[in-house]
Amino acid sequence: MFDYYCQSYVDQFLPCYFIDKYAIIINMTIHQFIKERPYLVWYVKDLDKLDEASIVEHVLNYGNWDDVQGMIKILGMEKTAEIFRRKSIPSKMGRQNYRPEIIHYFNLYFNKYVRQNA
């Protein structure tokens, strides 16, 4: 019954509905997603200028589990993992923007769910 109710709700009221406790995002861009979560990028004035890598960084560093899962539903697990892996490696100057505990956790998480290209 819950699935039927959700489906009829979705047909009438896009863009999203809930199954279990995680939102299934339908027809939502990553920029719409971050605009609904200004607490993750409180110091950014123009959210449209954020690129995907910056949004992934902010969601992983400052978001809760529902934020992370919603972002993964939009970008996909593989693309999110690829962005994270590329940006979590320190630059030539030794700089990267992920906190150490975030790097550790999401390395374990993405290594479990997304195979790395050799």
What does it look like?
This protein is mainly α and 118 residues long. The protein has six helices and two strands, in the order αββααααα. The protein has one domain. The chain is 54% helix and 7% strand. Strands 1-2 form a two-stranded antiparallel ribbon. Strand 1 and strand 2 form a beta hairpin.
Q: What's the structural domain tally?
A: 1
Poorly predicted regions? 1-23
What is the typical, i.e. mean, pLDDT? 83
Question: Between the first and last Cα atoms, what is the distance in angstroms?
Answer: 45 Å
Query: What Rg, in angstroms, do the CA atoms define?
Result: 16 Å
Number of helices: 6
Q: Largest sheet, order of strands side by side?
A: 1-2
Overall form: globular
Characterize the largest beta sheet: strand count, sense, and whether it forms a barrel.
2 strands, antiparallel
Please trace the helix and strand order, writing H or E for each element: HEEHHHHH
Helix content: 40-55%
Q: Per DSSP, what share of the residues sits in E-state strands of 2 or more residues?
A: 5-15%
Structural class: mainly alpha
Task: Supply database-style keywords.
118 residues; mainly alpha; two-stranded antiparallel ribbon; 6 helices; 54% helix
Topology:
Layout: H1 2-12, E1 16-19, E2 22-25, H2 30-35, H3 52-62, H4 65-75, H5 77-87, H6 100-113
Antiparallel strand pairs: 1-2
Helix pairs in contact: 3-5, 4-5, 5-6
